[in-house]
C-alpha cells in the first residue's frame, strides 16, 4: 500500500464501518478507533478538505432560491435555506 490520500481514506472508511457494525467485538472496535485516530480522525477522509472552496457561489444561491420556492420543501427547510442565502 502506498499510503496516498485515497489509500488512507479507504482505510479510514473500513475502520469507521467497523465501529458502526453491531456484529464486531468491543476489542475490534477499540482497535479501529485507535487506527482511525492515528490516521487523522475525521480529517483522514479523502475529499473532505476545502469542500466549500470549490462550490460556485452563484450555483449555491440558485439552489437555495430553488429550495425556497419548491412546494415539496417543508417550511423549516425553506427557512434554513433563506437563512443561508441571507448569510452569503
What characteristics describe this protein?
88 residues; mainly alpha; 4 helices; single chain
Descriptive account of the structure:
With 88 residues, this protein is an all-alpha fold. Helices cover 61% and strands 0% of the residues. The chain has four helices and no strands. It has helices spanning 5-20, 26-39, 57-68, 75-86. Helix 1 packs antiparallel against helix 2 and helix 3 runs antiparallel to helix 4 (75-86). It is elongated and about 50 Å long. The N and C termini lie far apart (42 Å).
Short description:
This protein is mostly helical and 88 residues long. It is 61% helix and 0% strand. It contains four helices and no strands.
Classify the helix fraction into a percent range.
55-70%
Shape: elongated
Q: Please report which band the strand proportion falls in: under 5%, 5-15%, 15-25%, 25-35%, 35-45% or over 45%.
A: under 5%
CA-atom Rg in angstroms: 19 Å
Largest sheet: none
- Write the element-wise H/E pattern from the N-terminal end onward: HHHH
Helix tally equals 4
Ranges where pLDDT stays below 50 over 5 or more residues in a row are: none
Number of strands: 0
Average of per-residue pLDDT values = 85
Head-to-tail CA distance between termini: 42 Å
Class based on secondary structure composition and strand pairing: mainly alpha
Amino acid at each position: 500500500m502506498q499510503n496516498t490520500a485515497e489509500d488512507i481514506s479507504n482505510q479510514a472508511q473500513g475502520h469507521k464501518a467497523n465501529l458502526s457494525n453491531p456484529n464486531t467485538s468491543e476489542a475490534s472496535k477499540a482497535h479501529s478507533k485507535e487506527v482511525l485516530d492515528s490516521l487523522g480522525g475525521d480529517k483522514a477522509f479523502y475529499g473532505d478538505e476545502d469542500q466549500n472552496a470549490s462550490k460556485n457561489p452563484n450555483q449555491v444561491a440558485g439552489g437555495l432560491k430553488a429550495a425556497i420556492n419548491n412546494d415539496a420543501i417543508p417550511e423549516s427547510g425553506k427557512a434554513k435555506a433563506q437563512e443561508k442565502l441571507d448569510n452569503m
